[in-house]
Write a structure and sequence with these properties.
Blueprint lengths: L1 H5 L2 H20 L7 H22 L5 H8 L2 H6 L20 H10 L4 H4 L2 H9 L4 H11 L1 H16 L2 H11 L3 H9 L1
């Protein structure tokens, strides 16, 4: 990233302009302090999203075989990416993977699963509750942190391509139980 943002003089100048403007804006026009009930909302959203994420990634016995079958995680583990090994412990499972192989594996098949898994459940749960839509809209309009979170989620969902992920699955996954997991996740 350093080489990408500062390797060429014109891009380096533009990067510094962006950073300087962001610092000045944050200093001179600090964002609104979040309302306590917004933080409570985020805690509840995170709790539901985390539960859904863990339910798939850690608790579904088909997840690890599916991940290893449909993504190039094994090949990525052999590439010299970064300065550290791809796993924290060589004898561990996917929970020991570092961010680069974990994210690259999902990016390769265009699913971006770590970025969005659980978000749908969190928002659906809140939207089903009385006043849920109103409080989420209020947070979107008045809390820059939440607005940025939604913008990033939208960007990652736009980058995802279910058709490409389905093609990888079609070509690489043979077991019916693993294909069933792919349809539900």
């Amino acid at each position: 990233m350093i080489r990408f943002k500062f390797g060429q003089p014109d891009i380096a100048l533009r990067s510094m302009e962006i950073y300087a403007c962001a610092v000045l804006e944050a200093t001179l026009l600090p964002p609104r302090t979040p309302e306590p009930h917004w933080r409570d909302e985020m805690d509840q959203l995170a709790k539901v999203a985390h539960g859904a994420y863990v339910g798939v990634v850690r608790e579904d016995p088909d997840f690890v075989p599916y991940f290893r079958a449909v993504t190039p995680e094994g090949a990525l583990g052999r590439l010299p990416l970064g300065s550290r090994p791809t796993k924290r412990r060589q004898d561990g499972g996917v929970e020991t993977l570092r961010a680069i192989p974990w994210i690259f594996a999902w990016t390769q098949i265009r699913l971006m699963l770590p970025a969005w898994l659980g978000s749908g459940e969190a928002f659906s749960t809140r939207l089903e509750q009385p006043g849920g839509r109103d409080v989420l809209q209020e947070m979107r309009n008045e809390w820059p942190f939440f607005g940025t979170y939604l913008d990033m989620l939208e960007m990652l969902l736009a980058k995802a391509d279910v058709a490409i992920a389905a093609y990888y699955e079609h070509r690489l996954v043979d077991e019916p139980s693993l294909k069933a997991l792919g349809k539900t996740a």
